[in-house]
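Before we proceed, please read the two lines closing this message. Report back on whether the structure tokens fit the sequence:
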Amino acid sequence: LNGSPDKSKGVIIDSGTTDTYLPQGLKAAFDEAWKMALGSDSSATSKYHNNPTKMTPEEVESLPTILLVLKGHSSSNANNENAIGMTRSHKDMFKESQSSEPISKSDVVVAIPPTHYMEESRGKTGTYTARVYFTERYGAQSILGSNVLMGHEVNFDIGRGRIGFAESHCDYSRYVEERDAKQQEEVVQRQQEDDIISRVAQNSANEENKNSDGAREEDSMTHMESDLAASGWAR
């Protein structure tokens, strides 16, 4: 993905860029993979292109999911190799890597489903355009735009020079519902803890009152005996 020979330059990850732009040199290999994924499909999408195409939502969803393999931050992923999104979860798909840099089990896989890279025209319902472009010349930097970042939580850790990806439903209504449910659960838990503390405090207070009543009764009996003895009564 890194189209620049300069190792100090990497791929640009920019949520402010709507589309994704990859090196021209990847186009031939991508076209071959696209053809293999679709098999004998002879529709207008059997060959990958960026021309507007009439499609149904079902046809869009039947298109391949594009997988990007990003070089992993080895020390960060040392105990994370079996997580979904790591290459180890896709080992059958990458067992014959033809890359000059073999895929490592600590590398990260970012999935781009067709509903993310195929954009429907606002003016022409049912017309879709693929928004992953192979247009960057040699030496230019690739750009992973918002259609790649969609469906992911992305953590830009500037201090440690790394970027973290985690799949997310990115559904705000669902997020609010889950957040409110968690907050309600925490409220109930606090109430239960407060009830336990209250009962413990009440039991402690009852025990203290009991001990205090016993002391007063003993003191009263002592005074009674003293009074009786002074009057000639004895026990």
Remarks:
- The chain is about 35% helix and 20% strand.
- The chain has a mean pLDDT of 80.
- The radius of gyration is 35 Å.
